[in-house]
Write a structure and sequence with these properties.
Low-confidence stretches: 1-25
Number of strands: 0
Helix content: 55-70%
Radius of gyration: 22 Å
Largest sheet: none
Length: 187
């Protein structure tokens, strides 16, 4: 059986997949199905969070640029015009270099692709799952992974923990401490 390329989220998927009771098995591919669904759900969560982050960064940068631009016209800030101009230029350069909107769009597309994979997997009844289905789903996982930018480990851990909680496995993945969550979009 082909499996998706190793990623941090697969370790949690394997832990959760190993806990499926044997009496619930209705197909030899139930473990594969669960592992792929878990991976796709974690991937979806991750990219939605990144999309949200970059959209907020873009909005804050635009608001700050407009506010500084309007502040130039105020009489009390006339002494600080060079500094305000420099700040506006730095915001503009940062926005051009980081390209928030482009990154948000990339993560939006990856999240939508992961969600489409979830829908495709869930649409097929357990008993009808064949090797060809698992292979196609693994191919789609690989396609998504090839287009992904490098993952942020702490954010992946947060998404893995959220997914394990949703599935009722509270002890499978440790909760990310608050101080790591505060910087998870940066490191």
């Amino acid at each position: 059986m082909n499996t998706p390329n190793p990623s941090p989220s697969l370790a949690a998927a394997e832990l959760v997949a190993d806990t499926t009771p044997a009496e619930d098995a209705t197909s030899p591919h139930d473990g594969d199905r669960h592992k792929l669904l878990n991976w796709a759900n974690i991937t979806y969560r991750y990219h939605r969070k990144r999309q949200w982050f970059f959209e907020k960064c873009d909005m804050v940068t635009q608001v700050a640029s407009v506010a500084m631009g309007l502040a130039i016209f105020g009489k009390p800030l006339q002494d600080y015009l060079p500094w305000l101009g420099l700040f506006i230029a730095i915001l503009g350069i940062f926005s051009l270099v980081v390209r928030y909107a482009e990154r948000a769009q990339c993560h939006k597309q990856l999240a939508e692709d992961a969600r489409a994979l979830i829908g495709e997997i869930e649409a097929l009844p357990f008993k009808e799952i064949k090797d060809k289905h698992v292979s196609r789903w693994n191919g789609k996982c690989t396609d998504i992974e090839l287009r992904e930018p490098p993952n942020l480990k702490t954010l992946v851990s947060k998404c893995e923990w959220e997914q394990s909680v949703v599935e009722g496995h509270l002890d499978h993945t440790p909760k990310v401490p608050w101080w790591k969550q505060a910087i998870m979009h940066f490191f």
